[in-house]
Structures are given as C-alpha cells and as structure tokens.
Amino acid sequence: CDAKLTGIVRDFRAYSRGDGHPDFETFQGSGLKGIVERELGPDQKPVYAHQGGTEHTTGPDEFNQWYRDVQGVNMPLEFTITPTVDANGIATYDNRAFFPIDGEGFGNEGRQHNYHFTFELHMKFAYKGGEVFSFTGDDDLWVFINNRLAIDLGGLHGPQTDELDLDEKASELGITPGQEYALDFFHAERHTSESNFVVQSSLAFTNCEPIFVD
C-alpha cells in the first residue's frame, strides 16, 4: 500500500492580538535544544523538560497545548504531505512557503498567511539498513524514532537543517534492521514572516492508513 503522510495541523491565535496563545508571535532567537525530554511520553506526545519557561517557551501548561486538542485554544485540521520519489527511492517534500491552513481555522488574523500552527505526524517504517532522514525548516522540529529523540531543532529560528543517518544512530535509538518502528514528528510554526518545510527520506513507511494519536 501507499503510506499516507497525513497528520494534524493545530491552528493557534497569535498572542499579539491579546487573546492568543503566549507561545505564538512572542519569542525570537536562533533555536534552543533541550526544550523536550529525550523520551516520548506514554501518550506519544513530547514531554516538556522544564518546570517553568525558557528563552523560547512560556511554560509546561502552555507547551502541553501544542499537540493536544484544546477547545478555544487551538483548532485541529487534517493535512497530508505529498512527497515526490526519485529513481533512487528518495522521497522529497520541499515547500519554502509552508502555509497549509491559510484562510482556515482561526484565519490569517489580518496577515498574508496563517503563521501560527503546529503539525503532528505519526508513521511506522521498516528499518532495512542504510536509511537517512533530513529536515530543513523553521521553527521547532522534533523527530522521535522508537520513542527516542532523533532530531532536535527546537525553538524559534530561521531555516535550520539536521540529517539523520539511522545506521550511525541505531544503537542510540535501539533499532535493528528487519524490524518495524514508529517515527513521530512534531513541528511548530510560531512567528512571522517565513515558513520553510523540507523533508528528504529513504524510509519505507508501512502504515497504510493515517495514524492519529488523541
């Protein structure tokens, strides 16, 4: 089957409007690692790693709303990534203007685009050996493989890139060729005025239907 790269985009209101979320359109910087714990939580969500705020976040209560449906705070919408696959089996999704919910959810709030949202995607893949996965974009991005943090591009920042060689990280991630594992992907776009989202992967995803985690 063709795996469906379908996840949940959650729209937020910008805090600059007074009634928005304090983590959106508030902070600036060049990124911050360690915002989340290195192990995924039992509910398949990132675990905030601090008791209070950081240079890029308000605190645990606010962060815990990023990837959970909270009525009046965010609005969930399904979104599907459609990559292109080359002759070598490398799948690429390259979007230098990643605004998947323009005019939807709470709307663009008077801006050209809807800049304030998170994106959550859960996949399964068969690890054969030799696979790579890379991401370039802004803002926050965390990728977990086998419930362990594999890519940490957290915080507010311009486009940043990290490339994961699964063979090099196999021991750290606890993965063995010939087995199936979960890949959990958490992204946030939190500030104007650009949104880059580029994924390249040679992973063979195996879930025929989208995976949604409440």
From TrEMBL:
**Does the UniProt entry include the keyword Signal?**
yes
Q: What UniProt keywords are attached to this protein's entry?
A: Glycoprotein, Signal
The reply to whether Signal figures as a keyword in the UniProt entry is yes
- Provide the PA14 domain boundaries: 57-214
Q: Name one GO cellular component term.
A: extracellular region
SMART domains linked: PA14
InterPro entries named among the record's database cross-references: Fibro_Slime (IPR011874), PA14/GLEYA (IPR037524), PA14_dom (IPR011658), Prespore-cell_inducing_factor (IPR051154)
Q: Name one Pfam family in it.
A: PA14
Q: Which family does it belong to?
A: Belongs to the prespore-cell-inducing factor family.
Q: What is this protein called?
A: PA14 domain-containing protein
**What organism is listed for this UniProt entry?**
Sorangium cellulosum (Polyangium cellulosum)
